[in-house]
User: Fold these one by one.
Assistant:
Number 1:
Amino acid sequence: MNIKHQTGLIIVLLLSGGVCWGKLPERPTIESYVTTDKPLNVSSSDSLGRIELANGDVQLLVLNTRNVYKGLFEMPVARGDVIKTSANSRCRVVTATGDVIHLGPDTLLGLNEKNGVSMLHLWQGQLMVYGMPMLQGREQSLKIHTPEGRVELKTGKINLKVGVEGVKLSVYEHTAKWIDNQGKQKKLARGQIIQVTGESRQVGLLPGGAEVSDGLLVSPESSIVRDGIKAFREKDFKKAETLFSQTQSAYPYNPAAAYHLGVMKLEQNDLKNAIRQWQRYVKIEPESERAKEVKRNLTLLVSQNLKEEAKRILANEAQISDATPTPNSIAVHPLLNKGQEKYRYVGKGLTALVISDLAKIPNLKVLERQKIQKLLDEIKLSRSGLSDKEVALRSGRLLRAEKLILGDYKIGKKKGLK
Amino acid sequence: MSKNDFTTKGRGMWRKNIFMNFYWILFFSMMNLVDDGALAAESGKGATESRIGTPLSNEYKKLDRKRLEALNVKLREAMALYYDRSYRLALPLLQEIADEVDTIDVLFWLGKTAYKTNRPTLAIEKFNEILERDPSLLAVRVELATAYLQTGDLASAKKELQVLLDSEAPESLNNSAREMIARIDRTDKRWFTSLRASVGTVYDDNINVGPADNNITLPDGGGTLILPGRLRGWLVESKVNGDVLYDFGERDGFVWRSRLNFFHDQYLDSPRGDFNFTRIDVNSGIEYLTREFRAKLPFGFVNQRFADEELTQGFYTAPNIEISLNDNLEILLGYRYDYEHFVADGTDSQDNSTHRVTLGPRTRFDFGGAIHIATLLGGYTVREASAERFSFDEWSIAPTYFARFQTGTEIFLQGRYQNRGYDSPALLFQEDREDNRYTATAVISQTFYDHFFVSASYTYIRNDSKTPLFDYEKNLVGVNMGVNFRF
């Protein structure tokens, strides 16, 4: 072979990508790993991400120590580690670059990194991968090696299956590139599917409903919520709270977690967190029948909670009043009506408008009108002889606001609103 | 409803569907196309998605590293929702991000999320912002066109697609744009016409509506009426129905509809030819159509001929409304006023004015690969004729079932009960006349080659009357074939 031919071969190998990124390594010998409950220490430089949520029998095989870990929640993953799920088990991994990977049942996945590029090795099973964008742009693709070739994904959502029938790649959002072991490339767009078995390669369109069924099969969300609801019904609230808290940590918009956590917090008389959870639930599922009921209960709870908070603040007034105000906070006192009594109702609306406008300013914390009003009521009940302005200043201080907006309005017959 | 109404109803379905839903159908079909378009675009030159990694905004550089990372976290949260089609929850997050860093990608996702959550104005604003920065992003024009469609602004949608076609876009993107323009053109159409004509043969076992008893004894020694008995025979039935509809163009708005119905029964031999019957009904009127509400105000003229001579001339108006309670249930409320003048000598005592009110529910559902429509209409009718013996009060009830299968087969079934009390006895009789009439109709029709159909029908009528002269039964069995065209 002359030099010309050799150069050509090198160029071809480089272009094919096979040389650059290699192929799927040998399947790890799982038997050589030993189960342990020792603490797992991963330095931040070695960390490739973390197992955010796991449901069922999920194992982390740590390359450095040859140890196997179970009961995974917020478990760090390092270079060379392998995650194994058994039947009916699912797992969610978040990489250091924010990509999300859902592992379905009977899956064996290795995690690695080369020159700052995340690489996954899928020996068997099924993944749903969410390639996440960055505001400054994303230069590197996530690379997933399979027995038949590899997938490259920058942003988007794909499903990848490795089984006896070969490799099946479905693209649900944006685009992904398939490169087989011979270096042949195929760019797939949203709605396309490719099935590769040895030399055979078939490209087609995704069947209807595939995304939903794949999601249900792979995501740990639905199965862990199901377990949480079961524990809740069986009144095992400790387990239910753990499961729902884990779910919410990984899926902040899961409605079942928010609703049930709200119920459990209410049971524990933790009004503040019950309200927070139910407010979150109403935001997630505003149109549901359950949300209507929750909204009704929330109104009562908020009022009750405010009263208790005001009482608590008053009881500790001395300490609180001298405390440093909350930075960048502003309290808006209800605007006072200086005109005819019939225009008193306008005050609430005007105050709401001021609050609404102030709330648009980034980094400025606006203290709620309702909270201030409730506090004023409490103060009025406990003390007398103070002018409205003094009371308002004090309420702002009590709420630890840095600044306070006071005002009044007058509606005249000719001059309108002043 | 006569059996003739079946053809009217069947024929009217396509138009009703078009005018109830065509903007939505167009929008959703465009959504699919856009997805295809984006799909093509993503894999082609000039696509927004392919620009990821090279954002056309450097505003992120102004942010400190901590703030940028916080926004990246928010972007990941938003995109996870976006990828899982939770657009409503993704929208506020993307808006917050775009307020600080409006890269092309963020604006693009925000725009798409906006029209997926039925906020086309916001989508249009964002897509236009992108195109102001880089007009070469042709895929964005497809998205912008779709957002315009959602607002019903077909002209702007078409304009954007035309800009794309005039540019050097990838062929796949051009194909999507061409297809979208073709669909818009179809929707932009204002005039709709349809014609349905059929001819067939019917066996009538009581052509002269002869009573059950041929010898009728008149009261108070008035003698006995000896009647000729039932006439039976074949007739040729011809029907032509034509519709012209003008759409004023608003998604929820007015259309003007004009309709011609021609019906002729030709008996094949004399003396049965004395029973030949022709009816021409022409009407025209405005209709207001929305997804939840339909109101119609037709005015019509009717001319009837019997035994080859002119029998009546009349006019009518029939305002009616249909209110959708949900996707499957509607309430129908109608009123009809008829004035009928009998032209033939000696028949003017039958001149009459008739008021009729109908009310009832209609349900529509899909099952077993077919559309099923069931209606139950109750009615009350008052007729004031020149002679009291032709005046009556009537109440009626009529259940109807219609099914259309994907195979092109249609089935129509109807039952009707009428109770009619006349204001005075029939001529020669003394007892008040009261009729109970039972009618059952069944029609099956099969369409083939899109424009042709054959149908078979059966109608049974039994009129139980206190006056024996009007006590009769009648059976009609027929087959016909015809054509059906829409322009």
Number 2:
Amino acid sequence: MKIRIIAIATALVVLSGCASQVTEAGYYWGNYANTLYVYAKEPSDETLAKHVEELNDIIVESNERELKVPPGIYAELGYIEAKTGDDAAALAHYEAEMSLYPESRIFLERLTADQK
Amino acid sequence: MKRIVTIILAVSFLSGCVEMGTKQDAFPSMYGPQKPVAILVVPAINESTAADAGDLLNVTVSQPFTNMGYYVMPMPIVADIFRNEGIIEGTQIKGLPAELFKKNFGADAVMFMTIESWDKNYAVLAGNVTVGIEYVLLSTTSNEILWSYEQTVVVDTSGGSGNIFADIIATAISTGMTDYASVARQVHAQAVTAMPFGKYHPRNGADGLDKSVVLAAKESAIAED
């Protein structure tokens, strides 16, 4: 009984409380895994908006804590913006990704060319 | 037959008589000039009976490998690109020369994931899910296998097993939405313990002597390709 309670409590912490965790590589992911999964499973304006909100939150929170924004976050945000026609915002976010992670350059430049 | 091997593996793992090797001995190419920074994960190959297991794997794979210190090409974008090309699973890519991915994506390595089992099984134990995933990381310059691993996790879904981690998974499954994504994350989390750290991890290059590779898991992944 006691073990069960501890297990459930731990599960709740794992599922909800990882928002404040920073990984060994120094990344803050917030609730990324969850919002991405929910969006992938049930794509809608609402689930997409939630995921975009999470991406923005990761950027804000990482900057506040003086952490590097994790790989892919800027790129993902830029990609969503490009799809909705906001090319300027998309380019700015692709640039941010490339300056943090130079190995993304070939991919993102090609993506930009293809999205035009 | 495969199931029996899996169970034997699981049992011998629990009893502690599994042969372990160091990361550097098992994967020497990951400590040389071929060591990748940018990894492209192609859509999973699903050989199991669970139809949506591939999507679960694709959506959960970036984070654990990124946390190991690699630049994993953003999966949501990559998945879209492949979908637009009519590619929904990795089998369609397997024969292509890996250098294509260097040219088009700037990837140093390509990772294939094959779901070998994702079965609910009520016969062997009270109730469990056996998930087996094979990972193969290929260099885009030499086509050489840089890292390979076959990770099997038996998740007890009957609850109250006394194993705190199994209980967490069981709880996650019963909560619905997170359900099987937690199982996928659990498999990735165990597999990456055998992965050498990458450029963006503080222990990059300093983990060669970590004895965390189950040698049989490495061999069985290679043997099938």
Number 3:
Amino acid sequence: MTWCILVWTLSPSGLPAQEEPAPTFAEPPALENLSSDPNTVEVELTAAPERRSLVPGMETDVLAYNGTVPGPTLEVEEGDRVIVHFRNELDVPTTVHWHGIHLPFAADGSPFHPVAPGAEFVYEFTIHPGTAGTYWYHPHPHHDTGRQVAMGLFGAIVVRDPDDPLPQALPERLLILSDNRFDDDGQIHFAEAGSRQARMDEENGREGDVLFVNGEVMPEIPIRAGEVQRWRVINAAGARTYRLALPEHSLLHVGSDGGLFEHPQEVDDILLTGAERVELLVHGTGEPGEAAILQSLPYNRYLPQTRPADWTDTLALATVRTTNEPPAVAPPLPERLPPVPALDPTEAATERRMTLTKNRINGQMMEMDRIDEMADLGATEIWEVENLVGMDHSFHLHGFQFQVIERDGEPVSQTVWKDVVNVPKRSSLRFVVRFDRYPGKWMFHCHILDHEDAGMMGVLEVRPEGPD
Amino acid sequence: MLTSPFFQKLATLTVLAALAALPQPTAAQTEAVPPGSAHNPHVVEVEAEDFAFRIPAEINSGWSTFRLTNQGEEHHFLFITRLPEEVTFDAFVEEIVMPFNDVWYAMRDGHMAGDEAMPVLGEELPEWYWGVDFMGGVGFLAPGAAAEATIYLEPGRYVVECYMRTADGKMHSMEGMLDPLTVTVDPSQGSPPAAELQIALSEEGMALDGRPQPGLNTFEVHWADHPEDTFGHDVQILRVDNETTVDDVLHWMNFLNLEALTEPAPGSFVGGITPMPAGSTAYFTAELEPGRYILASQYTSHLGVLTEFTVEP
């Protein structure tokens, strides 16, 4: 039994059928910087069991970073040295994976470096120039990532550029999207093994029927008439793909996983697969007091065998309410942003093919002691990712951002840094990547966490140049 | 053995309805190329992985040669079903595949006997199910093997699937080996191959005319009729050792047996052709090494429709 009453579908009027007052929009706290060095961010992070109210009137056993769900935000600038003193107070091994960040293998928080219960680990890495963007962190223990994320372990990383090309006057909003399921006692619900729900979760990934923004259900985001806000949106859900839309408002897509890109694009809606991030400029075009609903539109990523019956529902995520403050005048926005330095596909000496099928990549399931691919440090490569099956999969590469160059044989319109990409059903894409700076064993996997945990993951070893 | 009255009845209805509605190729269309003549194949390359097909979304109508390569670590096959005109792939999956799969899971998990499943499926399956046509495809194929089946397809909507089972009893179709296939009105310009060997399938049995040789063999298969209470004849070729009995093979192929259609197979399957309507003619090729072979029919061998042969070095 789940909390169906909290499924937020839109009424015919376009407004959610909820009558309780909307929670005020709030962002997670920032991790406190303990360093006095202006170029060092030193923080403490603890994963521990907690009891929190996630849904109104119910206390829920969760796992939390520093006691909050989502965890506190790691705020850094390009060039910063980051030191994270992590303590695992869970009763199982865990890791902290700094999703999308280019960092040393030992700091990646992959399944190769589990932190035992009661143990501590210091993650140290540098935020390189060109990294500015929105990232996130989450556990990555082998076979247990989905459960730990569902229990509440995830948080945002915001990397700032001291010379950010967007106006500093733009108010920023951080939106961490997640979902969950609860039983009648308010506890986080996982399907019983062998049940039909378990089979659906195995196929689709575990989707929740309660949708959160920054840990709140249907928060109200204030915006002034005429104002332009800069939204950083993270899909931290274990499996759900969001198709975001804000009716009657213009959305300008300015950034993706690895930061801003050259040609902003006005969009009516935008797809976010699991772990993906976008930066949007949202123009407040409503009249004072008016409300618009931030929605997730239907998107058919499913096999017909296990497609949820309610997949055609439009889901409400938050209310965007125009305040009664005097209208704001938005600062002028640049029509173009600095170009993303493009990797040169002609420098690729190696092309690899990744075939996605159920819980497998290239026909194999994850083995921790097997190296699936080997590359030289400094090499530029092209990877073709082909999804052979009738549902979408995503593809995430650890440690190195890449640039998609083709989808189904058609060139993409502009250069964008990515670390996770949706590969729609029965389609393919090609990306170019360069393995700079950091040798090591890097995971690549589907970011539907149930798939990852089931074995839809492989290992790329980047080897230092020189003789073996 | 097909002991379940439910499945026997269901199969009967399915086959009879399928056969009645089937458009048949004309005599000219089915005329085989004489041995030694140039064959004009319209080849549709299909790769089977664990667990997905790499197959075009659309092919031209007429004669097509499906060349199936098994790149997985489990047996696979390519079963082609033609849908009634108004039925979509999604409807087929939701209204046919899912109820069948639910019943299979119930049987697999010991919650339901075949007899108990009858009222459940009888209520759930839509009327249009009796209008689907089984249109052939490449038979069972061992890992690493390749084989061809040449069949005539009219324009329309089709489904391709493999319903072998994983070690934990999941049908490959549910794991991803289930895809739509559109056959367009554009003609394939293909023609059937010359065949050195003929197989006649009827209630009388499986008659093989000719002597298979080492190497590539092409078989012409003719379906004279289908026995009642079955899904119809098909042909599966497997090489077996001297200890393997026909019963071993039939037991493994009988989908009502819980351990059937799962690795390991009782021999090395090298292809064949899946059921087609009575009156049809189709072709398949198989690479044969010297050894003992059984030619079996998954759904009718229990009625005596099978034969054996030996390929001499």
